[in-house]
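Homework help board

Subject: predicted structure for assignment chain

Our instructor gave us this sequence and asked us to write out the predicted structure in token form, then describe one feature. I got the tokens but I'm not sure how to describe them. Can anyone check?
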Amino acid sequence: MIPEKLLEILKQDGVVAIATLGQDGPHMVNTWNSYVRVSSDGRLLIPAGYMHRTEANIACNPQVLITLASSKIQGLHGPGAGFLIKGNAVFITSGPDFDLLKSKFDWLRATLAVTPDVVTQTW
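My token output:
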């Protein structure tokens, strides 16, 4: 389940960091909060323009860590809220999840679909 505060953050400007682990070690890539969509079943759908190393890592190890935040949303101890998401990911190149993002981001080559296992507000 995606917390309401996380949905608020996704409406704000901010950076999303996506970490994967592959044979060459850890790798991190970024996108924007406003690019992320939430599916009806609670997955995060993220447009992938490049993310080739991320895709290769996920093919070997689907586990991802994602952080995102906004200074404009009230957090646990004052202004600013952030989340850590642990989950499993897959790259999708056809079907409804791909088509949804392709209609909004004509540059994407794939949809990165993340199924959260743990969603923790960190600040």
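Reply (TA_rk): Your tokens look well-formed. For the description, you could write something like this. Residues 4-121 form a domain with the Pnp Oxidase; Chain A fold (CATH 2.30.110.10). That's the kind of observation they're looking for.
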